[in-house]
Design a protein that fits this description.
single chain, 2 domains, globular, binds zinc ion
Length: 250
């Protein structure tokens, strides 16, 4: 079963990348069919097999022989790995659904935010609805409402940080997408663990920020991918982290 999830992950990873690419460029999802970015050559079915096509074609387009990005097979492998891990950890349980949704958002955000500095609203909204649905189903209405309130508090908190930051630095300090993402952290994990996602996300951003400061480059560093990575980490380790938080607070 783990292998089936791995293979599904490869296929979904390939699909999510195409989806994120097309949405960020405001292209239709269905037409035109998948094609080479350089020469426009329409890809045949055997050129669309995740990872394997890349290996068989030697990482080059069949028509124009331009080198294809290694990022594509890597992201496919990442999605496969996350899907397999989701099944391995949670089996066929409600938590599996949440984990698959978070893994999907992770992959889409990697492509959209690293490549285009955009966090797409529609995938985020879909994931919020799925997560909220599963919580209502497994934990009931009262718990569901607490999760919802946590999400709203986190959203307002980050919005405040953004407003103060924008004024202080006189430029966009925090993307609107990052503020919207915070809602999902509270919704999925409740308040304390939600805040922990922000802390871990910031730590993960640190090496990249230091790298650019070192290189003296003025670039906008995408925060979204690191935040969603933090979310997946905290979600997987939530029991252990809750214990640690309890020891620290008591
Ligand atoms: Zn080509």
């Amino acid at each position: 079963m783990v292998w089936i999830f791995f293979i599904y992950g490869l296929l979904f990873g390939s699909f999510y990348m195409a989806l994120a690419d097309r949405w960020c460029q405001n292209k239709s999802i269905i037409k035109p069919r998948s094609h080479c970015d350089y020469c426009g050559h329409t890809l045949a079915f055997y050129e669309l097999i995740p990872v394997l096509s890349y290996i068989f074609l030697g990482g080059k387009c069949k028509e124009c022989k331009k080198r294809l990005s290694i990022v594509y097979p890597l992201v496919e492998l990442l999605t496969g790995g996350l899907f397999a891990m989701a099944y391995y950890l949670y089996g066929l349980s409600p938590k599996l659904i949440i984990m698959l949704a978070l893994a999907s958002l992770l992959v889409i955000t990697y492509v959209s935010d690293f490549k285009y500095l955009v966090i797409l609203d529609v995938p985020l909204l879909i994931v919020c609805v799925i997560v909220f649905g599963v919580i209502l189903w497994t934990e009931g209405l009262v718990s569901g409402l607490w999760h919802l309130i946590s999400g709203i508090i986190m959203f307002l908190m980050m919005l405040l940080v953004k407003i103060v930051g924008d004024k202080k630095f006189k430029r966009e300090s925090l993307g609107g997408g990052d503020v919207k993402l915070s809602f999902l952290f509270g919704l999925t994990l409740n308040f304390y663990l939600g805040v922990l996602v922000l802390v871990i996300g910031s730590f993960l951003t640190y090496p990249m920020a230091v790298y650019y400061i070192f290189k003296k480059k003025e670039v906008e560093i995408p925060f979204g991918p690191f935040l969603v990575t933090g979310l997946v980490i905290v979600f997987v380790l939530q029991n252990q982290l809750t214990e640690i938080l309890r020891l620290l607070i008591l």
